Each structure stands twice: as C-alpha cells, then as structure tokens.
Amino acid sequence: QVQLVESGGGLVQVGGSLSLSCAASGSIISINAMAWYRQGPGKQRELVAGITTGGITRYADSVKGRFTISRDNAKNTMYLYMNNLKPEDTAVYYCNAEILRGGSISYRSYWGQGTQVTVSS
C-alpha cells in the first residue's frame, strides 16, 4: 500500500528556519509531480511549492525566495527548506504526490497526514 509520511514540523521563531521531508513508500512504480500544500486555521489549503520529476520547481508568491523545494528520486523523498519564516507561514503542511502504484495503469494523487509548523512572534 502506498503511503506518504511528512516529518520535520515544529515551533520556530520569526526569521528562523525549518526543514520538512516527505517520504513515499509502498508498492510504487513511479512518482510524477510532487508538491507541498499548507492550510492555516480557518483558511483554504493552498499550494506552497511543486516540483517535477526532473526538478523543475514552482513556488507561491508568498514563499518565493524564502522556501526551497527539492526531491531525491532514488529515495522517493521530497524536501521543503523554509527560511526567514513569518507568522503567516503557520499552518499544517501536507505532502502531495502523483504516484503510479503497482498493479495500476494510471497515476493518482496521494496525501500525507500533515505536519504542524508554528512560527511565533
């Protein structure tokens, strides 16, 4: 069974840094695009950053220049390096990936359980 697990969330002060990781495991044939989403209290879930298999990236304007997304295809793992954190970055961060599962003929979207990031003033 395919599973995505995030780790690395926690409490950090304004201006600090934090690194998140997302590991995919299970009967995986291949992983296409991967992305980080976040959802603050009472807010809609929004795309933070996305990355293709080849390493092409896209960022939300609110995090551009501060966050860096990367992936290690050999480890089926994605990372988000967050720098100069602001209070508005406080949210639950979710890993998302389009995965071709063993025994399937098409990709589908999978979500991790989320990890809390809290930026204190």
Keywords:
59% strand, 7-stranded mixed beta sheet, 121 residues, 4-stranded antiparallel beta sheet, mainly beta
Structural notes for this entry:
With 121 residues, the chain is mainly β. 0% of the residues lie in helices and 59% in strands. It contains no helices and 11 strands. The strands form 2 sheets. Strands 2, 4, 5, 6, 9, 10 and 11 form a 7-stranded mixed β-sheet that branches. It is elongated, with a radius of gyration of 14 Å. The protein starts with a strand and ends with a strand.
Summarize this structure briefly.
The chain has 121 residues and is mostly beta strands. It is 0% helix and 59% strand.
**Strand segment tally:** 11
Structural class assignment = mainly beta
Quote the distance from N terminus to C terminus: 41 Å
Low-confidence stretches: none
Mean of the pLDDT scores? 97
- Report the β-strand fraction as a percent range: over 45%
What is the makeup of the main sheet? 7 strands, mixed
The 3D shape can be described as elongated
Estimated radius of gyration: 14 Å
> Helix proportion of residues, in percent?
under 10%
Number of helices: 0
Order of helices and strands: EEEEEEEEEEE
